[in-house]
Amino acid sequence: METNYQEMNLKEDRQMLMLMHLSQLLNLVTAIGGIVVPIVLWQMKKDEIKYMDEQGKAVVNFQISLFLYYIISGMLAFILIGIPLLIILALTNIVLPIIYGIKANNGEQVIKYPLTITFIK
User: Fold this and answer.
1) CA angle 76, 88, 35 (to 5 degrees)
2) Model-wide pTM > 0.85
3) Is 34 within the bounds of a domain?
4) Whole-angstrom Cα distance, residue 101 to residue 111?
5) Can you give the pLDDT at residue 3?
6) How far is CA 69 from its chain centroid?
7) DSSP class per residue in the chain
8) What pLDDT sits at residue 7?
9) Rounded CA separation 85/100 (Å)
10) Is residue 83 part of a domain?
């Protein structure tokens, strides 16, 4: 019976990790929801869920990095170079959280977003 309980907890933990990754998609609806909600989930569950601390840091670092890339691309949009960069960033902001959310739900422990600057170690 103990094994079933542990399996259920592991499934719930993986679902919470997936939810944290997918919560970044709130950027599509709200201006800052995609960074606030992952931070709240990470801070609330980092001591309870295995790998939440590492993956939470990865999500926050990714969102901060994206924010900086958006600013730079926005400035470069005046000379037209930034427009394709903004499109690529927008697609990245949609696709990567979905991919890594699925990976987290499948039990992958190491999640590394590409081109992420490490602000939080």
Assistant:
1) 90
2) yes
3) yes
4) 9
5) 55
6) 15
7) -HHHHHHHHHHHHHHHHHHHHHGGGGGGTSSSHHHHHHHHHHHHHTTTSTTHHHHHHHHHHHHHHHHHHHHHHHHHGGGTSHHHHHHHHHHHHHHHHHHHHHHHHTT------TT------
8) 59
9) 22
10) yes
- Which two three-digit tokens encode residue 22? 């997918």
Those residues whose C-beta lies under 8 Å from the C-beta of residue 11, and which sit 6 or more positions away, are none
The number of distinct structural domains making up the chain is: 1
Report residue 1's pLDDT band, with 50, 70 and 90 as the boundaries: very low
Pick from 24, 17, 14: nearest CA to 116: 24
Q: Which domain holds residue 62?
A: 2-105
Domain assignment present for residue 56? The answer is: yes
Q: Which structure tokens are listed for 8?
A: 């259920």
Residue 39, in any domain of the structure? yes
pLDDT digits 0-9 by tens, 55-110: 999 999 999 999 999 999 999 999 989 999 999 999 999 999 999 999 999 988 88
